[in-house]
Design brief:
With about 475 residues, this protein is α+β, with helices and mostly antiparallel strands. It has 17 helices and 19 strands. The protein folds into four domains: about 110 residues, 2-Layer Sandwich (Uridine Diphospho-n-acetylenolpyruvylglucosamine Reductase, domain 2); about 120 residues, Uridine Diphospho-n-acetylenolpyruvylglucosamine Reductase, domain 3, CATH 3.30.465; about 120 residues, 2-Layer Sandwich (Alpha-Beta Plaits), CATH 3.30.70.2190; about 90 residues, Alpha-Beta Plaits (2-Layer Sandwich). The longest helix is centred in the middle third of the chain and has 15 residues. The mean pLDDT is about 95.
Length: about 475
Amino acid sequence: MTQHHRPPLAAPTPELIARLTEIVGPEHALTDPDQQLPYLREWRDLYIGRTPLVLRPANTEQVSRILALCNEARVGVVPQAGNTGLVGGQVPFESGNEIVLSVSRLKQIREINPAAYSMTVEAGLTLAECRAAAERADRLFPLSLPSEGTCQIGGNLATNAGGVGVLAYGNARQLVLGLEVVLADGRIVPGLKALKKDNTGYDLKDLFIGSEGTLGVITAAVLKLFPRPAESATAMVALAEISHALDLFSLAQETAGRSVTAFEFIPRICIDFVLRNIPGTREPFPKTYPWYVLIEISGAKADGQAAREMEDVLGQAAERGLLLDAVLAGSLSQARDLWRLRESVSEAQKPEGGNIKHDVSVPIAKIAEFIERADRIVESICPGARPLPLGHFGDGNIHYNIAQPVDMGKERFLELWEPITTAVHELVAEMGGSISAEHGIGRMKRKDLERYKSAVELELMRRIKAAFDPNGILNPGKLL
């Protein structure tokens, strides 16, 4: 039976709910609406779903039994980790027929092997807990996101999370050696191998990473670890134009090479939002500038090399007229203050009213052109709208966010979501970019995926979905 002609999924019966409750225990089978609420709404309140049951299994075997029962009964299951996703992929639909399966109790650190630079962790560990575990072993797990205190590693892998460390270490996909996954029918894929080379056919783990819970439920992973940097140098640079960021990035790469571990660009409006709405933040320079870049250079030895390379980059940039001003953090506390300006942008946008957000990527040589053209397009659709384009310059990832005009109501502004998003995505496609750089497709971008993926790519994706989940129970209606 093909993806297009499956019978509709069923609502769970009282008998099924009782059997599922028995698997996890009554205290971990949530039916009370107040207890369920944190699992049903995403943090921006764009999507608020309903469910008859939230299940919180304690181990992989319980996940297996849950999926086997739901697959037999043809009941939809929405896998959920930390519920920090931004495209609605982790919450159920409003129909109330899907069961939510939270991996938040899968919290074991099964193994840390510092000598082999790997650790095996379960899917419910928060990203912060993973990073802290690596640090205790004198190692680095480099995935870093502003939501790391609440997002969980299973969700990070299911969405192929990016973050500020992609420039040096890659996306989540590049940080995984092996996976343990439960398939829709309850079978367990035992792929927890700490191998860097395993050329034995199709690499199945790469199918599950980024599949947004539509092919299987990730329950554990072997993660790559790295040496902890012995030192780092952090600088914020003021620019007259975003186009100068490309030359500055090239200069940093030529001067410091792989030691450049972050290169983030921020427009002035983002700094204004943060200073206005986040207590304890402060202006980085005596005067304001149109654009800023936050650069981090790391070193393997505590010998001052990172600071010398940063000073070299800044000195050459000044000689070439690429910067207007620069501040080099003189302490860990000053570096944290600079990073807080970047990491607080999402939080600072909320008090400004409605926001329309895009997570896109274009070739880095076209970032400045994209921002200039996108700003003109948005102004033509909604005069007075306030674009806030920021992101990870080194990998071309632009978070092209737009705040409502100061004299427009939130509801009226959000009515323009579709025309603005369509126009921005059309520009992205024209420039050879991607409509989702690191947030995924979820529920929000399904129509856009249909529009911008080729017919052959979509057909292959549907065939893969049908092979792994023939009854279509896993995260139904998401991604495809």
